[in-house]
Amino acid sequence: MAPAPGLKVNLSSPNPRSRIGKKAVILPLKIVDHIMLNDPSKEAENEPIEVRCYFVRERNALLVRGDFSPLYTDYYLHLMQHGIKHERAQDDLLKDGLAALTLHLSSRPRNEAAAWTLSWQDPLQNLFVTGSNRSGNVVGRVFTEDVRERDTNLFIAQVMVAGQESRQSMIKAETLDMFKVAEAFYHQSEQRPGRYFRHSEEDFVMVSAQPDCDLAWLEALDDEGIRAIDEAEMLSLLETRVFRFDCGCSPGRIFPIIAGMTEEALEVVFGEGEVLAAGCPRCAARYVITRESLEAFKRERASS
Question: Which residues share a beta bridge with 198?
């Protein structure tokens, strides 16, 4: 039996993604990030993709390229496993967001993680993607329920580094195109050009300016030029990074979060029922938790 219809409770600090709606408890995002985002010990089964990072000699630019076909396959398997359905436009937007963030992360320090949110007003939806260089994972979802209405479309970028406070920047979003939005983020927040290109259907390239970059060359680049860049420019391979579509959430990881709630909070979320549907705020996965199994988990933890 699901929680009482219409019940909405915020379990964390104000966060439009951390709400209890009619169908499931959406776990507080900060808590889930704490236990999942930077966990290099997790053994992911999803197929990795290689992202290659090149220095474009004489142009002083960083070129990052990846074929996302295997990652997208695991993304679709995830949707099927959890019965998640998107409209075609939402699906394309999320896939582009995953690719844009992955290429961005590949150009950043290895101890850095990031989360991007595109808050769009018409149609009302939030696109959320997040990933970590340390664990080599990216994941995301689309929110269409209990979405906060704003006066304008916004793109919000958060950067997390272990041992440091997170940093956040925000810009107005002018188009429902994640590659164009990411380019605007580079221009306004990173204070340097960064451009995205489609080498093929699921093969993407990002080129970002480095000190003394040939900016005229970078601004003139187009998809056709990117497809011929191996012959036209001198590329030096710097490194290869590996990423998977993987959240890290599981019943075993969610039980401690639910068990950590106060008895009052548990009564609110369970209502008069014996079953709770717990939803992951990072990947939209849903897990069924019963009162009986929760009590068994508490007893086992207390005796260990």
Answer: 204
Q: Where are the alpha helices (DSSP H) in 16-169?
A: 29-36, 69-82, 88-106
- Architecture in CATH of 47-245: 3-Layer(bab) Sandwich (3.55)
Over the chain, what is the mean pLDDT?
Answer: 86
- What residue spans define the domains of the chain? 25-35+249-303, 47-245
Cα distance between residue 110 and residue 148, in whole Å? 33
Secondary structure class of 289 (helix, strand, coil)? strand
Q: Both tokens of residue 234?
A: 């001198």
Superfamily the domain 25-35+249-303 falls into: HSP33 redox switch-like (3.90.1280.10)
131: amino acid identity, one letter: G
SS3 261: coil
pLDDT digits (tens, 9 = 90+) for 31-64: 344 334 434 344 457 999 999 999 999 999 999 9
Residues facing residue 61 across a β-bridge: 56, 209
Q: How far apart are CA 265 and CA 257, in angstroms?
A: 12
Q: How far is the C-alpha of 80 from the C-alpha of 232, rounded, in Å? A: 42
